[in-house]
Design brief:
The protein is mainly α. The chain has one domain. The chain is built from 17 helices and two strands. Helix 3 (38-63) runs parallel beside helix 9. The longest helix is centred in the middle third of the chain and has 36 residues, at 152-187. It is globular, with a radius of gyration of 21 Å.
């Protein structure tokens, strides 16, 4: 499921539902009929349902808000837009923020839109920006479902967020100012025009507020998810069709995520169980936070970051010999931060690191932006631009 989209993209696009659901069914069937372990299966199913309810609801609500931005933008305006997008990712989720802002981002840079605009949008809005709340990025929400307090992430991760976001914004401004200067010199005139912002569908902010409140509901079971789905339904049916049409809204991206993660959540059950019991032998009794940072990050770059987060969380449970999340946060807080930051930040390194990355790439290509291939993105943007930032974060904090 991780390699097929890269090695055989056309085949995968046609057959991914059969592959993902079949692989998940094999594992689920083994737990149900052979191992008779319905507890593990039910726990994974509950986490999957909560995960999809949040991701899907945010996607629907974001699809009901339209932003129009006529005119081109200065490098400073672009940098400010990316900063606002990074903040918005913590409220709308990286998926919701990316889907809401990618079209106006392309529109405000029309005339000089380039691959670096999309690359840094993926870095900041679709990944790094969303590390301050469990809503921000899928792996953090899975941690919240495991019992990590809602505001713990913001309290512990804001220095890394500020460092990485600040460095990426400075780097983007330098690159964009250079690119804009070349265009002005070539054209012999200033291509920047005044812009008038227009918003539609702001009534969906009401449904967004309901969803954010629902995150804190813990009992009774499934009430939180029910409220989220009802808010999404209210948003969808009250949004004007013209807004959905302008946003080119459809359910294909979230359907693909739902199918893929059904297979991922099922097949991760035995892997997580193995890590619970084998992590101490694998990593030693007192592994450094850096091992968890680079381990979680490295796999998040080439796999999806949500199951990778769960894998290293299980490994940390195994190392400490406890299943109590409060004990874990007390004994290994830096290790937990390393896992969280590694999963969120490294998810930006490739198109397959986080769900929104592929969606952003597809929309950019649809709008005529020349996007690099998988390896070119890695070599031209992730290694020279993102990796130095990740190394600085490691040196400063882990």
């Amino acid at each position: 499921m991780a390699l097929a989209p890269v090695l055989a993209p056309h085949w995968w696009l046609k057959h991914y539902p059969k592959v993902a659901l079949s692989l998940g069914a094999v594992t689920a069937g083994a737990y149900l009929f052979i191992l008779r372990d319905t507890t593990s299966l039910a726990h994974a199913a509950h986490e999957y349902f909560s995960f999809i309810a949040l991701i899907g609801s945010l996607y629907v609500v974001a699809g009901g808000i339209q932003i129009q931005v006529p005119g081109n933008a200065t490098p400073l305006a672009n940098t400010a837009f990316l900063f606002i997008g990074a903040l918005a990712a913590n409220v709308l989720g990286t998926t919701g923020a990316a889907m809401l802002l990618i079209r106006p981002w392309i529109q405000m840079n029309r005339g000089r839109i380039a691959a670096h605009h999309i690359a840094f949008f993926i870095f900041l809005v679709a990944n790094v920006g969303g590390c301050l709340t469990p809503i921000g990025d899928p792996p953090l929400f899975l941690g919240f479902l495991q019992g990590i307090p809602f505001w713990w992430v913001a309290q512990k991760c804001w220095p890394m967020w500020a460092t990485a976001s600040g460095l990426l914004l400075i780097l983007f401004y330098a690159l964009d100012a250079r690119a804009a200067g070349r265009i002005q010199k070539r054209d012999g005139s200033d291509a920047i025009q005044s812009a008038t912002w227009k918003f539609a569908g702001l009534g969906n902010l009401f449904f967004l507020a309901i969803m954010l409140g629902a995150v804190f509901i813990k009992h009774p079971p499934f009430l939180r998810e029910t409220v989220m789905l009802l808010a999404a339904a209210g948003s969808y049916f009250t949004t004007k069709k013209s807004i959905h049409a302008a946003n080119e809204f459809n359910f294909h991206p979230v359907t693909e995520v739902a199918i893929l993660f059904a297979g991922i959540f099922a097949t991760m059950i035995p892997a997580l169980a193995w890590l619970d019991h084998s992590a101490a032998n694998l990593l030693g009794q007192n592994p450094s936070p850096g091992i968890f940072y680079w381990g979680t990050g490295g796999l998040s770059a080439v796999l999806d970051n949500a199951p990778t987060y769960l894998g290293f969380l299980s490994a940390l449970f195994g190392v400490t010999g406890t299943q109590d999340i409060s004990v874990l946060l007390g004994e290994k807080p830096v290790h937990m931060v390393a896992i969280s930051i590694g999963a969120v930040f490294f998810g930006a390194a490739t198109y397959i690191g986080n769900g929104p990355n592929f969606m952003v790439k597809a929309i950019a290509e649809q709008r005529g932006v020349p996007m690099p291939s998988f390896m070119t993105f890695l070599l031209k943007f992730s290694l020279p631009c993102l990796l130095p930032v990740l190394i600085i974060v490691w040196l400063l904090f882990f």
